[in-house]
Amino acid sequence: MVKLFDTPLEPPRLQRNDDDFALVRRIAESGQDHPVLMLNMNRYAPDAGFPDRGRYLDYITGLGPFLEGAGGKILWRFPVLGQAVGEQRIDEILACWYPLHRVFLNLYEAPGAAENFRRKGLCVEYAVIHRCPGAHPPFAPFPGASGIASGA
Questions:
Q1: What is the CATH number of the domain that holds 39?
Q2: Does residue 143 fall inside a structural domain?
Q3: What is the pTM of this model?
Q4: Does residue 145 fall inside a structural domain?
Q5: Distance CA 151, CA 136 (A)
Q6: In the chain, fewer beta carbons within 10 Å around the N or the C end?
Q7: Residue 53 domain-assigned?
Q8: Which residue from 25, 66, 56 is spatially nearest to 119, judged by alpha carbons?
Q9: Considering its fold, how many domains does the chain have in total?
């Protein structure tokens, strides 16, 4: 069982993985912090209004400005149309990019954090966030590739 890191601004069902948070802290404090891409796999409450109304719309329209104010940004988001393999039922994937792990860690103290996490708690029923390399996030061109991303 994964030990959870208590994040008081979020409900218990959305608490963070303690081991990964510890690693993110070590990276942020190492003097070698670097960009990180967080892939958010979200399932919304049936009455949240996904994909275009209600509490979902309040959450998603506020999330972009909140992240930008904190130093990150939403690169893209897509609805999930189906699942070819596995058992994780989600509604949407959001790619959130941060120039440093430290920026991600500081989200809870950023201006507007309490309101952002309140809105998230009202509409996100289930979430898994995958931490990925952020130097060359998906759908971003690699340097010297003439705007075409390679598998490098």
A1: 3.30.70.100
A2: no
A3: 0.85
A4: no
A5: 10
A6: N
A7: yes
A8: 56
A9: 1
Residues 6 or more apart in contact with residue 70 via CB below 8 angstroms: 103, 106, 107, 110, 111, 113
Percentage of the chain lying above the pLDDT 70 cut: 86
Please tell me the distance from the alpha carbon of residue 57 to that of residue 62, in angstroms, as a whole number: 8
Question: How do residues 89-124 score in pLDDT, each as one tens digit?
Answer: 999 999 999 999 999 999 999 999 999 999 999 999
Question: Bridge partners of 98?
Answer: 36
Task: Give per-residue pLDDT as tens, 34-71.
Answer: 999 999 999 999 999 999 999 999 999 999 999 999 99
Q: Tokens for 38?
A: 């967080």
Range of the domain at 111: 34-133
**Calpha distance 16→25 (Å, rounded):** 13
Q: Is residue 103 part of a domain?
A: yes
